[in-house]
Amino acid sequence: MTMGDSNLRKPTNFGTGPLSRRRSWCCSFAVPPASPDTLSISSRNHIPAKSQQQRPKPVPCSPQSSKSALNIVNRIDPRRILSPGRVSPIDSDPTVTTMQETETETTHEEDDVVVVDSPPNLRSESFRAPKIEVTVSGSGSGSGSSEGYDARLSLKGRNGGVLVLELSSEVLAANSDVFAGLIAEDKKCSSSSSSLGLKNTCRIEVCDVENLGVFRETVELMFEESNGILKRFMKMGVYRAIDVLEVAAGIKFSRAVLSCLKYLEAVPWTEDEEEKLRRLLGIYNFDAAAISEILARFHSNETENSQDSLSKKLVWSITSCSDVNPRNELKSLVKGLLCKSSVYEKEQPEINKEDIYRAGKCCVDSLGKLFEEGSSSCSSKKEKPLIESISREVENINWLLEIMIDREIAEEFVEIWGKQRRLVEMHERVSPMVRYEVSRVTGAIFMAMGKRRVQCGGEARAGLVEAWFKPMLVDFGWLQRCKKGLDMREVEEGMGQTLLTLPVKQQYQVFMEWFRWFSKHGTECPNLSKAFQIWWRRSFLRGVESSTCR
Fold this sequence. Notes:
This protein is mainly α. 58% of the residues lie in helices and 5% in strands. It has 23 helices and four strands. The chain has a four-stranded mixed sheet. Helix 9 (238-250) packs parallel to helix 11 (271-283) and helix 17 crosses helix 20.
C-alpha cells in the first residue's frame, strides 16, 4: 500500500492503535464529527485500544459520558434512520456489549440522579415535586430519598402506564384530606422501621386512574399559591379545568376546588363544557355557597319563566312581528328549539298545545279580516300593503303548522281549516294576486297528508276537500309561478293521495270536477292523472271483477 493510498482512505485493520490522522481533528474530545461514516469507522478502529484502558464510570447525561466513540454511537443509534434493505454499520456485538455495560452502570447510580419526565410513549414515568430545589452530588450518597421528598405516590393508569411522583408528605397532608389520612396511617405502621439506614418513605398507590396527566397537574397545584392556582386554570382552559376539578374533588383538595369554581364562574362555556360541568356537579357534593353562582347559570327558581309560558311569548312575538328579515330569522331559531328533533331538547316537558292553537286561530281570524278588507276595497293604493299583510299572516300559519306537524298535533288544525266557509266565500271576490296566498296553507296540508305525517279522520278530510279543492284548482297557476317554498310535485302527489282516501262517491264528484277543469286549463291545473287512473281501476275494473265473483 502506497502513501498516497493511505491518505485517500482510512485503513480497515482492526488490530492497530490510534491513527496519526486523528490528531488533525480540532476537538476537546479527540473524536471525529458524529457522522454515520466516521462513527462506524471509529468504532471499528478503536475498540481494541479502548478495551485496554480502565474506563471511569460515566454519569448519565454528563459530558464525561461522550468521550468514548462507542458511547456516542449508543446515544445516536436509536435515532438513526436506515435506508430500506440496508443494515446499520454500527450494529455490532461490541456495541451491544457496551450498551449493556452502560445500562448496568446507570442502574447503580439511579438513586443519585433527579428523575425527569420520560417521553410520552413510555409506559412508566417519574416526577419530582416542583418548587423544591434538591442538590444531588455526583458521587452519590446512597440515600434512598432526597431531603424534602419523603413520600412516593404511584399512579397506575386505567389503560396502562405508571406515573411515580416523589413528593413531600407534609405538602400532601396539608392540601388533601384523603392523602393526610393515608400518610398518617402509613406512619403508624412504619414508625420504627428503617431499612439500610435510609429514611422512611411513605408509599401511596392509586390504581385505575383515568388520566395520569390530569392527576399530575392536580398534585402540582399543591405547590402553588392561591393566585398561582388561578393562573394555572386560566392557562389550561375550561375543559381541562373541569377534569382537574374532578380529581381535586375526589382527593378533597379544597384550595384547588374553590379556585376552579371561581374560575369557571367567571368565564363562558361551550355546550360540551356545560354538559360536562353539569354532570360533575351532580356527582360530587360541593359547598352550596361556592357553586351558587354557577347553578344560577343553569336554571332559575322562578316559576313564571317556565318553558310553556316562554314558548307562548316567543310564538306571539313572532306572529306579531312586522319586519320581514328579523321575523324569518326568529322563526328559524324558535322552530329549531321547539321541534322534537332539536338538539336542545333534553327531557323538556311537552309544548302547550292550546297556546299553539290559540296563536294559529288568531292568525286565521286576522287573515279573514284582511280578506274582508280586500273584497270590499276598490282602491289600488291599498293593494300592496294588503298583499304584504296577507302574505305575513299566511307565513305565520304555515310556520305554526310545521311545528304542529313535527309535534304530531296538527289533526285538529286541519279540521279548523276545513271549516273556514266565510274565508272560502270571500276567496272568489278577492284579486288572484291576493287570494293565491291562502292556497299555500292548503298546499302545505295536502303535502303533509300525502306523506302520512298527518292522520285525520274521514270527516276532517272530507271537509278539507269540499272547502278548498276548488280554490286549489283556481290558484294552482299562481302557485306554480310564486312557489315560496312549495314543491309543486309533492303538492300534486299529496292532493291525489288525499282524494283516494275519501269515500268512492265523493271521489267520483271530485275527480270529474278535476277532469273538466284540466281539459280547459291544462298546465294551469294540478296533474292528478296517476290518482285518476287508480280511482278508475278501483271503481270500475275491480268492481266488475268483484260482481262477477259474486
